[in-house]
Amino acid sequence: MRFFIYSGLSVNELLELKFSDIIMLNDKDKNTTFEIEVGKGKKQRVIPLLKKRFIRYLNAHKELSICDDVVFCSKNKSTKMSRQTISKIVNEQLKYAGLKADVPIEIFKNSFAIFAYERGISDRKIQQLLGHTNIQTTRKLLNVRKTVTTKLDVADVFKEFE
Fold first, then answer.
1. Where would I find the Tyr recombinase domain in this sequence (predicted)?
2. CA neighbours closer than 13 Å in the CB half-sphere of residue 152
């Protein structure tokens, strides 16, 4: 679930993600970026993630996976998970945490964008992170009209989660 929240990937991108789509770009410190080939036409995007947690998660997940290359695999069918399964898992976790359940799973991509924007990431950088071709799509999601003047390195935003 953390990967879902902190990656900014859409549900469909998450479900289509394969281990072979993930390329580590920078491994010099604990915060790093990964290149992920996702979305329409397998566009490449650089996703900032905490290296230590992400690698730990991937290694554990790959060992337990009964699918060859699919990151989010259904245990019952040896295939990728369905949207319904992801939704069920997310809502069970929210309920367990004492939060409102029955939240649309698309909210996590939106939350990622708003979280980054509130911490000073420009709408143009968020557009790149989300894989939007049109800045208006990003601005509509953020519901903002102006660019934040404070610029931060995207990886720095996620240091608070280490």
1. 1-156
2. 16
Distance (Å, rounded) from C-alpha 129 to C-alpha 8?
A: 7
Sign of the Cα torsion 86, 89, 92, 97 reads negative
Residue type, 60: A
Query: What's the pLDDT score for residue 134?
Result: 93
Residue 114 is encoded by which pair of tokens? 């708003």
> Could you report the average pLDDT of every consecutive run of 10 residues in the chain (162 residues)?
77 81 62 64 70 71 71 75 87 81 78 87 91 90 54 48 47
What letters, b where the CB count within 10 A reaches 16 and e where it falls short, cover 117-127?
A: beebbbbebbb
Count of residues making up the chain: 162
- The Cα–Cα gap between 106 and 75 comes to 23
Element (H, E) at 79: none
